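Let's inspect one such protein example.
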Amino acid sequence: MSQLLLHTRYQFLENLREPIAAVSSIAFPALLMLFFVVPNAAVARDPVGATLAAGQMAVFSVVVSYMFNIASGVAEDRDKPWEPYLRTLPSGPFARMGGRVLTAMAFSVLGMLPVIAVAALFTAAEATLPQVLAALLAVLPIGLPFLLMGMVIGYLLSLKAAIPVAQLTLFPLAFAGGLFMPPQTFPGWLDAISHALPTRAARDLVTGVLSSEGAVPASALPVLLGWTVLLAGLAVWAYRRDEGRRFR
């Protein structure tokens, strides 16, 4: 536990040493909401629509923090001579990976706070305190597939390749998952594909918690669990593949 907290502390501080990158990742979801949701009077003045839009941006904040930051962080560490030395230590990879996970969680929470502030100040979003707390508690664990996806990208690719691949993966997943536009506006073929994506499942779970009906599609949890199992296997394989290349 002490090693886990130590790695978390240093990785968190390492991210803060690049304030532009840290602030941009934290502010980006709120800026999207400020530029695309707030000017849309039909959504911003509708309590239900504004609340669901805030939930979607909260999910996007987690996706950005988990996937992009993990992918770039892992790839960057692999380029440093310090990382091979850490892998030779008997403590194993769990403290380092756990520290990376906790750091990503911390930045995702920081990214959700501006979204909540924009929704409260500039829209008619309505949610009770228990709903907000339940959404915050739900959105952190359901981001696990994106964290694992970031690890797969980071361990398979160099830093120069990991960043564009993460971006090219992130935005199509976010769009097709209904994080930028309500899935109700999708054509039938895109809606069918969307239901199989982890972004759509995460979005449906969070918006279900925030809505008064509390309805969540039955496919949401199985889709998230399936992606988590698949990506966990790929992450382990990518880690062992990278370790085999460095230490064989």
